[in-house]
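go over both lines:
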Amino acid sequence: MAWEKRFSLPKFMIYCILLLVFVIMAYPFFYVLSLAIMPYDEYVKQAVHAFPSGFTTLYFEQILQDGRLVHAFQISIAKTLVGTVLNVLITIMAGYALSRPQLKYGRLLTALFIIPIFVNGGLIPAYLNIRGLGLLNTFWALILPGLVSPFLLIITRTFFMEYPQELIESAIIDGATQLGVFLRVIVPTSTPIIATLAMLYGVGHWNDYFWPSIVVQADLHPASVILQNMVNNRQVLQGIGQGMQLASQSYIAAIAALLIIPVLVIYPFLQRYVVKGILLGSVKG
């Protein structure tokens, strides 16, 4: 029967496994969000909460009243917006240039970009470069060191190598310059790879905490660094019996929730472009 073919035992087992994986992956996010809206009195009543007990916006109100955290979130937003725009712009320009067969030494340049994927110069040389360029303790120190991801650049290059050459040749015949072809033909018709780069770069900027904690002072720390410092301080002081002096776990969860929610809201709208962009940019031939 038709329904037996549609709901066969192997498919049912696959769906059950996928559902189990989804629950395991999604529950930590759900728990953090639940903790952020749960009154602290309800939280301390029992060790484990499957679902939130009660509702409050107290912790989010406290965050809005904390000038340091508001400033940190402003830094996070500015870092993500400015960094993502520059990342995407430079990556698609470099990827398109490397995909052109007429580019002199194109293969050599591509090889030079592949090397950093496997060999990293290390933290200390990167720090010394930033200091030598005079970017230490500046906003640009949060953006310029990671301006181009070699991995994403190779994906972008492969995407443009598969681009229909007829469109480019037609524009050139009509008198368009290389810059005109890029701006009027390539960019408007490359939504999958642009959305892929924007999503991956944006999430990277939004969640980045290690590099900003090294190259800038506290007044330029994004919210992710503030959250990491709170968690580390809580663990250290709890280890020596002074945990009561710290912010409550619910307050920390509220900060984490504000960092999680934007990604959860934006990603579903870009997910289909991300998958398509990575597939198109990872397969040649």
Q: What stands out?
A: DSSP finds 14 helices and no strands in the chain. The chain has two domains: 1-56, 67-282.
